[in-house]
Amino acid sequence: MRWLPLAAVLLAGAALADEAPPVIVHARVEPEHPTIGQRFRYVLDVSARPGTELVVAQPADRLGDFDIVDFGVDPPAEHDGRTVVTRWWRLVGWSPGEHVIESPAVRYRLPGEELRDAENDPTRVEVASVLGNAGEKADIRDIKGPEPVPRDLRPWYLAGGTLAALVALALAWRWLRARRRRALAVPPPRPAHEVAAEALRALRARRLPERGEWKEFYSALSGIVRRYLEDRFHVRAPEMTTEEFLDATARGDTLAGTHRVLLGDFLVESDLVKFARHVPALGDAERAFVAAERFVGETAPADRLPEETLRAAG
Questions:
Q1: CA 264, CA 80: separation in Å to the nearest integer?
Q2: Which of 5, 22, 277, 312 has a CA-to-CA distance to 49 between 20 and 30 Å?
């Protein structure tokens, strides 16, 4: 009878399906190779036999080395006689290189049994630098000729040092006498957020985006924000690359998570214009300027905000 071989195949497929684990966890990332500061999706698919009770852990702020900026749950679906539950998280990372994300814990209970732990699915994520692999070219020059023998200037150095010391002593004595006569009133330094706000107003008045001077505009804008970070939080931001600075603020408690994400988006976009020859639109420049104003306003000390800002916050 011709239906016997087909029936044997169907029975064999059913037997293999019964041998599959009760719960299968599969994780993936979209896209597979994000850049530093780029938001990407981490998706967790949990496939279970019908009637299985599932308990999926929900991370709070971070998943592995990445900050969580959003998450959600897709409606359950049926596939090959199993129920598939999908959860996703939107992540962002600040350190280039290879990272491993351990999938959130999944527990399940079969009818009439105790809770069990499902086997997790670690996922490797390669975070790329926004500047790519471009390196500096070697600068090969010819060998210089021999240098002439220098003159012995040590006697002159000794005489000059002695004279300078005498002059310094005379000036110090004169300064001490003047200090005894009057107390020098040194005005306190201006708050960092006021200096940054004034610099932002001056930059807007230059109207660089309207003239198409994108690189000068983004360089000046990122310089204002970096100087503000140095004066406000004592972070040597002007001496760090974007990746070093974002990695330092991510490890410490200098900035809140929302401010790190806002600053990361702003600095990454500035680097794309300055180093990767990205040509933005006027709307992009306005959005970057508003992001800088918002960052300065939200991170300024509460007791030194302008009265109108305090009334708006109240």
A1: 43
A2: 5
| 96 vs 181: which has the higher pLDDT | 96
Which CATH code for domain 19-127? 2.60.40
Domains of the chain by residue range: 19-127, 192-313
Alpha-carbon distance of 22 to 116, in angstroms, equals 10
Lookup: tokens for 148: 């002439």
Can you list the positions of beta strands (E) in the chain? 23-30, 39-48, 53-56, 62-63, 66-79, 82-92, 97-101, 106-109, 116-117, 123-127
Q: Are 224 and 199 in contact (CB under 8 A)?
A: yes
CB-based contact 89:66 (threshold 8 Å): no
Q: How far is CA 108 from the centre of its chain?
A: 36
The CB density around residue 16, as the number of other CB atoms within 10 Å, is: 8
Residue 9's pLDDT band (boundaries 50, 70, 90)?
Answer: very low
The pLDDT value given to residue 239? 63
Q: DSSP states of 168-204 as a string?
A: HHHHHHHHHHHHHH----PPPPPPHHHHHHHHHHHHH
Starting at the earlier edge strand, list the strands of the sheet with 106-109: 53-56, 106-109, 116-117
Strand, helix or coil at 216?
helix
94 CB neighbour count, 10 Å cutoff: 24
Alpha-carbon gap, residue 253 to 232, rounded angstroms: 14
Name the residue among 119, 120, 116, 57 with its Cα closest to residue 89: 57
Q: Provide the sign of the torsion angle of the four alpha carbons 137, 135, 248, 268, taken in this order.
A: positive
